[in-house]
Amino acid sequence: MKLIKEIADWAYSLAVALALAIVINAFVFQPTRVVGSSMEPNLHNNDYVIVSKLNHTFAGTPDYNNVVIIDSRVFRDRSIKDDIADPVSTYLSVLKLAEVDNHIWIKRVIGKPGDTIEIKEGKVYRNDTLLEEPYIKEAMRPTTPKKVVVPPNQVYVMGDNRNNSSDSRYIGPVPVSHVLGKVVVTL
């Protein structure tokens, strides 16, 4: 009987610890592994970062130049189920027990609601002002000029490796609800 009680106590303690870990990872902070080269030279493939989820939890808009993780599936609504499932799969990827979901991207905030973002001649302008971007890997190859006004409750994000990044140039502005957190520590 004593052994059964001890096993039950351990099982209860593990269940509480697991539930607490899921809540913390879903709503407070989570470790995340960088996948790909879109944020070079600042973040590299397999780097680890700690992401603060507080802005997402309290529906805040990130600031310019914040490095954030986003849900790139911008044409679908996010739910509480996503907020719980995404950190679990990300945590498993940090432990290298699973691959990172390919819809979770890490990018830099370039534009906020109401901003006009214009890309011309390989340069980025925000509200007609050329951005000084010492963090980018190399000059962006010129492409077809693009001009976007960032809608309310959305942000415009780009990777630091502009020539090798899928970002708002391809998926459009990202709803603030899809900005899952801000990188606060790089390991």
Write structural notes for this entry.
With 187 residues, the protein is an alpha+beta fold. The chain has a single domain, classed as Ribbon (Umud Fragment, subunit A), CATH 2.10.109.10. Helices cover 26% and strands 28% of the residues. It contains four helices and eleven strands, in the order αββαβαββββββαββ. The strands form two sheets. A seven-stranded antiparallel beta sheet has the order 1-2-11-3-4-9-10. A four-stranded antiparallel beta sheet has the order 7-6-5-8, with no helix packed on it. Strand 5 and strand 6 form a beta hairpin. The chain is elongated. The model has no long low-confidence stretch (mean pLDDT 89).
Keywords:
Umud Fragment, subunit A; single chain; 4-stranded antiparallel β-sheet; 26% helix; 7-stranded antiparallel β-sheet; 187 residues; 28% strand; 4 helices; alpha+beta
